[in-house]
Specification:
homodimer, about 625 residues, alpha/beta, seven-stranded mixed beta sheet, about 40% helix
Chain lengths: ~625, ~625
Amino acid sequence: MPLDRATQIAALKNVATRLRIDSIRSTSEAGSGHPTSCCSAADVVAALFFAEMRFDPKDPRHPGSDRFVLSKGHAAPLLYAAWAEAGAFDREELLKLRRIDSDLEGHPTPRLSFVDVATGSLGQGICAAVGIALNARRIESDYRTYCLLGDGESAEGSVWEAADVASLDKLDNLCGITDVNGLGQSRATMWGHDLEAFANRWRAFGWHAITIDGHDISAILDACAEARATRGKPTMIVARTIKGKGVSFVEGKDGWHGRAFKKGEELDRALAELERQFVPVPAGLNQQQLIAKPASKPPAEPAPKPVAPPSYKAGDSVATREAYGTAIAKLGEADARIVALDADVKNSTFSERFEKVFPDRFYENFIAEQIMIGSAMGLAARGAIPFPSTFACFLTRAADFIRMAAISNVGIKVAGSHAGVSIGEDGPSQMALEDLAMFRAEPNFTVLYPCDAVSTERLVALMAYHPGPAYMRTSRPKAEILYSADEVFTIGGLKVLRESAGDVTTIVTAGVTVFEALKAHKELRAAGTAVRVIDLYSLQPIDAKSLIAAGRATGGHIITVEDHYAAGGIGDAVAEAVSDAGIRVHRLAVREIPRSGKPEELLDRYGISAKHIVEAVRAVSAQRPVGVK
Amino acid sequence: MPLDRATQIAALKNVATRLRIDSIRSTSEAGSGHPTSCCSAADVVAALFFAEMRFDPKDPRHPGSDRFVLSKGHAAPLLYAAWAEAGAFDREELLKLRRIDSDLEGHPTPRLSFVDVATGSLGQGICAAVGIALNARRIESDYRTYCLLGDGESAEGSVWEAADVASLDKLDNLCGITDVNGLGQSRATMWGHDLEAFANRWRAFGWHAITIDGHDISAILDACAEARATRGKPTMIVARTIKGKGVSFVEGKDGWHGRAFKKGEELDRALAELERQFVPVPAGLNQQQLIAKPASKPPAEPAPKPVAPPSYKAGDSVATREAYGTAIAKLGEADARIVALDADVKNSTFSERFEKVFPDRFYENFIAEQIMIGSAMGLAARGAIPFPSTFACFLTRAADFIRMAAISNVGIKVAGSHAGVSIGEDGPSQMALEDLAMFRAEPNFTVLYPCDAVSTERLVALMAYHPGPAYMRTSRPKAEILYSADEVFTIGGLKVLRESAGDVTTIVTAGVTVFEALKAHKELRAAGTAVRVIDLYSLQPIDAKSLIAAGRATGGHIITVEDHYAAGGIGDAVAEAVSDAGIRVHRLAVREIPRSGKPEELLDRYGISAKHIVEAVRAVSAQRPVGVK
C-alpha cells in the first residue's frame, strides 16, 4: 500500500533519526568510529533504502537487486544500521561493532553478505560502482547502482577516472550521491559547502548533476527520481549536509572526525536530542514492508563450454603476452562471464584479440589504471570473471586497488605485460621490476608467471576458475614453445625441465629467464656439469615440497634467477618455501635502477643472463660442502 | 637584438622542422620510439624553448631557470632534440638514442642534467611540475614552470589531483600545455579533438584555459604571454595538433604510435618532406642566442643549524608517529629546506606539528596521495627536502610515483603511519601490511622502521640528509622509550637489545613487535631460556654482518617477527642478508587478511605477539642441531 507523500517523508525522517541513534550508540559502545560522518548522510541513506532502492533484506546478494556502494567507507555504522533497520539482522548486533567476534568491522568488507566490495580507502567505491553498473548491462538486468561518496574523497584522482569512464559508457543506471558536509578529517575540505564547485566538475566530466539540501527528504526523493529519468548519462546528486547533523553540539564542528561520543553524559545528551526529533507517523507503520522488491532473478548464466587445448607447435615463437590475448579470447568463447578491461594498451597486451570477438564484453578505460582495476572489482563482485590488463609496471598505479581487492577477496584476474628489463629500449619507466613483490605481498593473491605460450594458455584458464584474485605476469620477447599441448599445469605447481642424478645444484626461475637457465644448462653440460632446472610458473601458492626435494637432491643449494628486483620476487618466494629445510638460496636478480638498451644487453648487464647463471653455478658448486643432502 | 615577429616566427618554424627531423632520425636509428608523438608537439616545444623560456643551455640546473617537464615522456626524442638545438650537447649524440652507452634513454631520466624527474609513466610530470612551481615560491624565485602533457594521459586521475592542488595554491607560475593530437596508443583518445572537453575540465578545476591551434607558432606565443599575465591561477593551453604533423603519410593516422620510420625509403620520404618545409630566414641567424637567460641565481640556502638531541625521558610513552611530527618540526627549525606534505591526515600523522611552526612550508594535498608524492618529487628535484606523510596503507595509492621517484633517485623522505594490525579497530583497509614490501622492492630506497621516540627522531634527521629516496614506517600505539637521548643510530645499523653468552636463538624485529620480543625475552628468561633480541630499525640498507654474527652465535637460527604480511618485509630482508651463511630464518608475520579488533587481540590472533614468539623460540631450540655455529 503506497503511502501519501507527507506520511512517507515523516516515516523516512524517523528512519534517519534511528540510523543516527544507532550509528552513535554503536560507535560509543565500540569506543571509536565516525558517528558524525554517519549523521551527515543519514537522510540520504534513509531515503535510498526505504523509498528508492529495490532489494530483498533477506537476500542481499539477489542478482536483480539494486546495489548500494558506500564509497565513504568510514560511515560503516550507518550502513550497518540501515541493513538492521531493513531487517537483515538483529539491531542488537550493531553493538558488536568493531569487535573481533563480529563481521561489523570498522570499515565494510564482503564478509557481510550486503557488501559487494570492501571500502575504506577513499575514492575506490565509485570505481567499483562503475563495474557493478557495467555488469547490469552485461547480464541485461535493470538493477540500478547507487554510490555514496564523501566530499573529501572527491579529491582522489580515481574519482575522476570513474567519472570519465561512466560518462563515456553512458551509465544512466548509475547514481552517485556526494555527501558535502564540508569537513575532512583534519580540516575543512578543499571546497567547503560550494556545491557548484562539485556540480561543475561532474558536468565537465559529462554527468548530469543535481544540487540539493541533503537533509531535505523530499528533495532527495525528487533528485533520485530525476536521476532515474535521466537517459544517456550517469547522475551525481550533490547534497549539502552538516557533519554531525542532529546533535547540536557537534553540528558542523571541526575536531569531531573519527571520534565517538563518550559514554555517559556526552552520549546521553546526544541521544536525548535525537529522541526528541521523532515525528508522529500512523500507528503500525512497518518501514520494512515499504522496501520495493527486486525484479525476478535474471536467468542463470550458461555453464562454461569446454575449451580446445592450445594449438601451438614445437618450433613456434610466441610472446607470452600474445599467448595471453589468444587465451582470453578462447576462454571468452567458452564462458560468457569472461570480460576484459584495458587501459589503452590493448595492442601491446594483445587483449585486442578479445575485443575483436567480444566487443560488448570489452571495457576500454583509456590511460587510467585505477578505474580499470576498480571497475573489474565491481564486475567480479557481481558474477563476471574480469581480466584487466596493462603493462605490469603501470599496475603499480592501482596498487591500493589491488590491496583492497585482496581485502575484498574478489576474483579479479589481473595480467601485466612487458615485465622486466627484457623489454629493452623503452627504459626503466616501462619495466615492471616490483610487480611480483606487489602481488605476492597480498596473502590471498595467486601469482603466476608462465614462460611459454602453452603454459600461458593453460594458466589463464586455471586462474579464471581459481577462487579469489590472481595475477599473471607476461613478457614482451618472443619465446619458443617448451611444452606440449597436453602438458598438465596446476595452481601451486612447478615443472622440472632438466634433471639428472648428478645435478650439482638447482636453478629455479620463471618467465624469460627460463630460457637463460636452459642455455646455461646446455653450456654447463658441455663442460661436464649437470644442473637441475625448474620452471616455477606458480609463485603463489608455491610447491615447497618439490623445491625442498630438489634442493636436497642437488647439494643443498638453489640458485634463483629473475627479471625482477631482488626483493619480493622469485628469490624471496623460494627462500621462504625452503627456509625450514636449511637450503641455501643464491639470488640472481636486478639490483639497481636499469637503463635503456637491447634486451639481451640488459639481461647481461643486470646479472641474469645465461653467462651469470653459469658463473653462479660454478661459484656454488665450489663452495658446496661435501655430503650435505 | 630582438627579432621582428615575422622573422621570429619563421625562425621558430625552422626550429620545429629541425626538431621533427631529429626526432625521426634518432628513432629510426634506434629502431624504436615515438616519432609521431614528437611531431605533434614540435611547434609548441620550439616556441617554448626558443622564445618563451629563460634558461642557460650550458647550465641546465641553474636554480633561477624556467623549468620544463615533459609529462608525455615518450616524446623524449623531441626533448633531446630541443636541448641539442639549444646547444647543450652535440646534435650527433641524438643518434645514440636508446643505446646502452647513452643517457638519451627511451624515456627521460635525471641522468640527464636537464631532466628534473623521470617521466614515462603518464600523468606524473604534471604532479612534479606542481612541486617545482611550489619550490619557486619557497625560494622566492620568479622562475616559471612549463609542463607538456599528452591528451591521452589526461585520463589519469593524478592529473586532476594536480589540477586541484595547483588551483588551490594559486600557482600562476605554472603553465601546462596539452598536446591534443587525438590519438592514444591503441585508438583515438576519449575526447578526440574536442578542445572544449579539455578546457571545460580545466576551468571546472579552477584553471585559466586557452584553446589554440598547436601548429600556429604565433598563437602559441600569444597563449604563453596570456598565461604569464594571468594572476592567481595556473593556465592550461589546450593545443589542437596532428599526430605525425609534417609527414603527410602518417599525419593523423592510427597505428603509428610508438613506431619508428623504417630506414630506407620510408625514412627518406619523411625526411625529404620535412626538408622542404624550411622557410627563408635572415642569413647568420643564431637561434641559440635568442634564448633568454635566467635571472641571477637566488642566494644559496643557509646551512642547516645544529639540532638539539631528543628530549624524551625513560618512562615517557610516545607513539612513533607522534615522535615523527615532533622530529620534522625540530628539523624544520634547523633547516629551511625541510618542507612537509599532507593528505588530510595531519592530525593522525602529527605532521600538523610542522604546519603549526612553518605554515608556509607545509603543503596540504587533501585526500590525494599521488599529487602529494608527485609534488614532493618536484620539490626535492629543486633543492627542498620534502617529508610527505599519510597512513602507510594509503601510500600504496602512490606506488607508481614511488617507483618513478626511485628511477629519478630523487630525495623524497616518505613517512607512513598506522602500520600493521596494531592499529586495531579500524580494520584491514586502514592497515599497511605491504608497505615494507613496496619500498624495499626499490633498490635505492632507504627503509627505516623505528620502535621508539628517540630512534624516530634520530632517524628522521638521518634520512633527511641521506642521499636519495627514503621511507620511514611509524606506528599508532604509544610506545615506551627504549633508548637514551645520546644513543647513536646509523642508516644501515641495528641495535642488539638483549644478549648473553647462552642465547639459544636470535629474534630480529622492528617497530611495535620489538616490545613483544622484549616481553617474550623476559618470559623465557624467567623459564631459564636466553635469547638475543635485535631491533632492526634499518631494513634497507641492512647490517648483514651483525645479523650473520648473531645467527651464528645463537645456534644458526633467527626468528623474525613483523606486523606486516609475510612477503617482502623483515623476514625476507633478514633471510636474504644471511642466506649465504646458511642460517635458517623462521618468520612470524601476518598470513591472512586481518579483521577489526583490539590491537593486542590482533597481534595475538595473527601470530606476532609475545606468546607466539615464546612458542617459536621453543620450537626452534628443540630442533636446533647440536654444534651448529
